[in-house]
Automatic annotation (TrEMBL):
Location(s), subcellular: Cell membrane
Keywords: Cell membrane, Membrane, Transmembrane, Transmembrane helix
Transmembrane regions: 12-34, 46-67, 105-125
Protein name: RDD domain-containing protein
Length: 149
């Protein structure tokens, strides 16, 4: 139980680090593309372009990549875990979108990260109680994270 909790935590950190690197690269690109300086601050079109690109990157990383590497992001691949439906079958594109884009990314953004903290507490509680590890997005979309060989 603790082993899977540890793997999920490290995979989350790897994925978060990759997105931070992508976001900072995106920020630099937008700043230079729109010639942002002290005299010419970031205007609405630059901000909209940055937000649109970041949403695209998140969609690619958390929806497209797991479809191509069934059930795995880079962090999950390195930690040898994957996402499956509750019945053990592969997830669909719609389920990846609901689970990882809507429930994880957008809900986390809207709650200012509270959901991440809530899921961490929920997983720790389940580990202590020796229950199956299941986060809020796993419950809503009916998925599970399992270890692969």
């Amino acid at each position: 139980m603790f082993n899977l909790l540890f793997r999920r935590g490290v995979a989350f950190l790897i994925d978060a680090l990759m997105l931070v690197v992508i976001f900072f690269g995106n920020f630099g690109f937008i700043m230079s593309a729109f010639s942002v300086s002290i005299e010419n601050p970031l205007q609405l079109n630059g901000l909209l372009a940055m937000v649109a690109l970041q949403l695209l990157y998140v969609w690619i990383y958390f929806v497209y990549v797991p479809v191509k590497m069934p059930g795995q992001t880079v962090g999950k691949k390195l930690m040898k875990i994957k996402e499956l439906r509750a019945d053990g079958k592969e997830m669909t594109l719609k389920q990846y979108f609901q689970r990882d884009f809507m429930m994880k990314f957008l809900l986390s953004s809207l709650t200012r990260g509270f959901i991440v903290l809530f899921n961490g507490i929920l997983l720790a509680y389940q580990c202590i109680r020796k229950q199956e590890l299941c986060t809020l997005h796993d419950m809503v979309v009916r998925t599970q994270v399992v270890r692969v060989k």
